[in-house]
Amino acid sequence: MSIFTSERVSAHLTRIITPCGVCMYLAEGTQRAALLDTGFGFGDLKGYVDALTEKPYVVLLSHGHMDHAGGAVQFDEVYLNERDWALEKWHSTRERRIFDVHHGPGGMPAGVTDDDFLPSRTKPYLPLEEGDVFDLGGVTVCPVAVPGHTAGSLVFLLPEDRIAIFGDACGEHTLLLFRESAPIAEYRKGLLHMQEQADRFDIVLRNHGSFCSPKQILADNIELCGDILNGTDAAIDSDFMGMKGRLGRPHEHPGKVGNILYDPNKLR
After folding, report:
1. How far is it, in rounded angstroms, from Cα 209 to Cα 206?
2. 29 pLDDT band (50/70/90 cuts)?
3. Is 255 exposed, middle or buried (0-12, 13-18, 19+ CB in 10 A)?
């Protein structure tokens, strides 16, 4: 039995879910397909994808963190923004992935053992940048640069389906407290840049939690960035897996969707 499950999201998009509550997406056109992210790197993701589509497919990574790039070793040609190449090398090692899953919020999933984790990828990545367009036949995947969560974070836009896959670039609990995270001011510029694409999508998808958010989340996080830079946010002391930071809004924030956990020493 596979550890992965899947569900249809749109005419061209399938969500693939892992036991850790992380998902990937498979976009499929008439000519080829694109696997968007590869999860933590345990289990036979390639075998699962090969069973979903008979078309040739390309692999595109939204950023270099282990829960998105961890399974890249199974695929020959994988695209990743160059700004995250060095990050992936130290963040996605097999040892670190095992440790982080064991010590993560849910611990090691039932039915998964250390032996299920794939080796670290050693083959080089191919560069992935905004402006690249992957025409799959009837649907395209267009990366948009939104540095913040990591320097090389990308949003995948599927304009034919009116979908933007935000990944971890903008979420209900956006994490900007890592050493590889961009300052709030740079993140705000990236969100404003993404807002320029707002007439090309209606649906916002993510890779964690509920896997989807109202489109309002983009405007909410732009507003919150401004509040953080002005010193008018809630600035609640908080942490994530032992890392200390500040939460821009209370956990309960009626009328608003987005939130940001950030390093107060990395504002500009």
Report:
1. 8
2. very high
3. exposed
